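Hey all, quick one. A colleague (J.T.) asked me to put the iron/sulfur cluster job into the tracker so the inputs and the structure tokens live in one place instead of scattered across chat threads. No bug as far as I know, just bookkeeping. Sequence used:
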Amino acid sequence: MSTVTLHIERFDPTVDRKPHMQTYVVEVAEDDRVLDALHEVRWHQDGTLAFRRSCAHGVCGSDAMVVNGHNRLACILLIKDVGHEITIEPMRGLPVLKDLVVDMRQFFDQYRSVQPWLHAEPPPPGSRERLQSPEERARYDDTTKCILCAACTTSCPVYWSNDRFVGPAALVLAHRFLFDSRDEATAQRHDILDGRMAAWGCRTAFNCTDACPRHIKVTQAIEEVRRDILRGGD
Ligand code: SF4
Ligand code: FES
């Protein structure tokens, strides 16, 4: 066992006028994750600390936060990889509800704005499947991995300065359906994406790609969406 010092941004809107940092020292095991240290604080030192987590295994996307200046999932980040002096803040660009919990409503509204579902007529009579070749499936495989953690969107400087920009995550999901060979709404999708608040808002800062815990090539996906718009989907 060893100790780790956590500097955590605290904000309770019912009593605080602005956020402040609070320091905790906790005992951790060699292979503990940042989430384990946060649990240690909440369960044994300070039950008022608010943060989200659900699966604790990098699947649900609920515990994205800023750790030592970078957007990360606390449940898959080993303490030994970040050091024993750790600063933890809420994701930037979304309103803070309490401590590390941000209001995700704007993020999910932007996600829904790109219509992240398949547009397709019912299959022909007698057929129950819409067939797709392995090559066609591979075309959008990378963007199926998104867990909607918002790490990309909240690391984007364009998003920080303009919350009308849909953000990288919405564009990743747009890519996932735009390049699905079964989808029949290419023109409609282009109309939604062809603007400065969508595909053309990206300034290729690459923060999103660096932040993604699923290692999705976010910037590349956005670039592919743009090229598809310019080509007219052919
Ligand atoms: S693209 Fe990556 S960082 Fe962005 S929401 Fe999806 S999983 Fe999270
Ligand atoms: S708690 Fe589910 S991804 Fe971390």
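Adding what we noticed when we looked at it: The first strand starts at residue 2 and ends at 10. The chain has two domains: 2-102, 105-231.
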